[in-house]
Design a protein that fits this description.
Chains A, B: Keywords: Aminoacyl-tRNA synthetase, ATP-binding, Cytoplasm, Ligase, Magnesium, Metal-binding, Nucleotide-binding, Protein biosynthesis. Chains A, B: L-aspartate binds at residues 167, 211, 360, 364. 2 copies of one chain form a homodimer. Chain A has 2 domains: 7-96, OB fold (Dihydrolipoamide Acetyltransferase, E2P), CATH 2.40.50.140; 123-278 and 320-422, 2-Layer Sandwich (BirA Bifunctional Protein, domain 2), CATH 3.30.930. The first copy, chain A, is 28% helix and 27% strand. The first copy, chain A, has helices at residues 54-62, 114-119, 121-124, 128-150, 189-196, 236-257, 259-264, 283-293, 308-318, 368-377, 386-389, 406-414; strands spanning 15-27, 31-38, 41-48, 68-77, 85-96, 154-155, 161-162, 174-177, 180-184, 202-210, 223-232, 280-282, 322-325, 338-339, 342-346, 349-353, 356-363, 399-405. In chain A, helix 8 crosses helix 9. Chain A is elongated. At the A-B interface, strand 1, helix 3, helix 4, strand 6 and strand 7 of A face strand 1, helix 3, helix 4, strand 6 and strand 7 of B.
């Protein structure tokens, strides 16, 4: 690597070359400070005009904010400097000059709306708090992978170009594939089941999913990151255990490893790992409790899907993460198994954050005949899914799994207002670029 | 989790329930053995017909191969059993009966062609050697991520639906995005550069890329996994160091953690981590050495791209991984920087395995004016890429990076013949399903 010291590693007595962006220049007359920023933090560069070479001073103080500079010099202790040290420069190089008219202020002093921020992500990501979100996102994904491996899962990758959607032809983006019609996959569901039926048994995948939903809300994306699990010889209760473990792994890792980032986000004091087991409410209990809150204009009846307002009312009532189990079969997809004791009730479950749904899962239908029946009951042609259904004739074990919204996990963990804040380059109905 | 013991964990004296597939039934008359297989291995179940309940014997020996069974009983030492232990069953449950006519033999005794294997991946993945490939693939990706973090990189995810391709309109799959034309991204190139220009500085991504190339060879896929790196304040030599570190991390992890899998693939004796530094040959040296091998009908001249036969001849000559550096500028894309001392020479490099190219990288053009020139020289309209180019006006640091083919890494590490063996569900011109 090039001869460069990160600002966070500069110690008094060192002779260093630090490289980064001009965060700010404070000119006090005879003395001036250039604040240089890199990925690890900021450092003060001191210019004593009368004692330094004119060229050096002119170069150092003449460049526009956000220009990239390399400064070589000695590090000295300076209690009044923000980090307790400063660099006395011997050489300053303007590596990449910035236009003085910035479309967005990375110092964060001038607010920008989300759209301007997304149009200028490079500049936006020079802000400590925005950088912190994506450092935390990476740490969450690392911790999630590690926890899945503790659950004896193997990471897989399934195709994103597919001949048929998971749940039929709705809400799919069509693609032209060498003259054939194909789609971008809305879920790895069918593929992960095919692998759970093999010797690999337990799998997870973290990858993109694509949904052509016309929703335009602060919690929907048209391209999102799905965190998927599927395990042979698991039932829905096992899958709930795994889902709970994965969500907790995210919080635990952030608490353990992201202190500086939480600080940058102003969350250092309030951040907390969810305590205790997530309660498991049946769908029936859930609608009763929602009705009891009196928040809805109309009472829910058995068979209704839960409206957003209902989820929020229940979330406020429960006050933490919780599961909703035993959903009516008819509002869950064909691949979810029904309970043996009551075919009106499915093994499907959702894991809810008080603000929104995070996870949807269940035990899967592994019996070939019942699976074919399920397709037909939902108006789908089983022949179109033969590549999937035929494997159920050759010893498909009972299995269960779930899909967890990656951006929703980041968003709820950090209390972000809009899911777009948890994606570098979000895709929605209005936004296709950058 | 359900009350279940993995076969590999069954110890003499234990009372267990093992669950898995019927791998084989050996009926020797008065005594018969059922070999049960799960993700961790195989275990022998002993049926002594005269001493056991008829129902138990009939159930255990009556089901077809690949049926899923659960067997409860006691584990006993038995030196003649393949794993040194066997289970004396007290209860046998047929969990999921298999059709006796299998489209593919998971015991591996009957060979199947690749197409049949891919059509029946669930059964194919019940073979030890095939399972081993995907366990190793997962371990390689884990090790690669870990090494990137040691290089101070942050994992990112960039969009797969894009308004413009990285290198213009060729070889892109078109998609209809809410009535607008869009494409599936062929590389995270432009997006990772936009993030390298922010405080995040060093990034990696492991994700799908999509290329509508008409190639149909044993080393091309139309949907592949790209392992991408981009680092601010790095030059091409730094990027080569990272690429070499990542490839070695893959080999080291396989050697350290995948002994059983290498055994299943018959590679336990021959597998070796590449030794020493990968040599760095200039493009000029490379064509000279290829010409000297006499393997090509026509001599290469400066400016030619290297034909596959040339790569193979040079690979055999070098005998291990190597870099090719200093490529002619005109055969490298617009975002690769040229050398200051000779604008005909680029900073682009390839990392080669003796069998094929693995990595393509270089220092990037970070100077706004030169970047715009580069677009124009390659016949691309810079206005279409304004979301990208405009960020180069606001302090874009020098940066370098690379893209590494994930499947090619797995394929060359394990000496697989066909890249499709390294993907669960490959996509090529003929294959869109499963």
């Amino acid at each position: 690597m090039q001869d460069r010291t990160y600002t966070a590693d500069a110690e008094p007595g060192d002779h260093v070359t630090v490289s980064g962006w001009i965060h700010e220049i404070r000119d006090l007359g005879g003395i001036a400070f250039l604040i240089l920023r890199d990925s690890t933090g900021k450092i003060q560069i001191k210019f004593e005009k009368d004692e330094m070479d004119d060229d050096l001073v002119e170069t150092g103080l003449g460049a526009a904010r956000e220009s990239v500079v390399s400064v070589s010099g000695s590090v000295e202790e300076e209690p009044r400097a923000p980090t307790g040290v400063e660099v006395v420069p011997e050489e300053v190089e303007i590596v990449s000059a910035a236009d003085p008219e910035l479309p967005l202020d990375p110092s964060g002093k001038v607010d920008a709306d989300l759209s301007t921020r997304l149009d200028n992500r490079t500049l936006d990501l020079r802000k400590d708090d925005v950088q912190a979100i994506f450092e935390i996102r990476a740490e969450i994904m690392r911790a999630v992978r590690e926890r899945f491996r503790e659950f004896r899962c193997t990471e897989i990758n399934t195709p994103k170009i597919v001949a048929t959607g998971t749940e039929g032809g709705t809400e799919l983006f069509p693609i032209t594939y060498f003259g054939e019609e194909a789609f971008m996959n809305q879920s790895p569901q069918l593929f992960k089941q095919l692998i759970a039926g093999s010797n690999v048994e337990r799998v997870f995948e973290i990858g993109p999913i694509f949904r052509a939903e016309e929703h335009n809300t602060p919690r929907h994306l048209n391209e999102a990151t799905s965190i998927d699990f599927e395990g042979a010889f698991c039932d829905e209760s096992d899958a709930m255990d795994v889902a709970e473990g994965i969500v907790k792994a995210a919080y635990e890792a952030v608490e353990r490893n992201c202190g500086e980032e939480l600080e940058a986000l102003g969350l250092a004091d309030e951040f907390a790992v969810p305590e205790g087991e997530f309660p498991r409410l049946s769908y029936e209990e859930a609608i009763e409790r929602i009705n009891a809150t009196g928040e809805l204009d109309e009472q829910l009846v058995w068979g209704d899907d839960l409206p957003t307002e209902g989820e929020k009312a229940l979330g406020a009532d429960v006050g933490g993460h919780y599961f909703i189990t035993d959903w009516p079969s008819e509002i869950k997809p064909f691949y979810i198994q029904d309970h043996d004791h009551d075919e009106q009730l499915s093994t499907g479950f959702d894991l809810m954050h008080p603000r929104m749904e995070l996870v949807s899962g269940g035990q899967r239908e592994h019996r070939h005949e019942k699976l074919i029946d399920g397709f037909e009951q939902q108006g789908l042609d089983p022949n179109e899914f033969e590549y999937y259904t035929k494997m159920f004739k050759y010893g498909m074990p009972p299995h269960a799994g779930f899909g967890l919204g990656g951006e929703r996990l980041v968003m709820t963990t950090l209390g972000l207002e809009n899911i777009r804040e948890a994606v570098l380059f979000p895709r929605d109905r209005q936004r296709l670029s950058p």
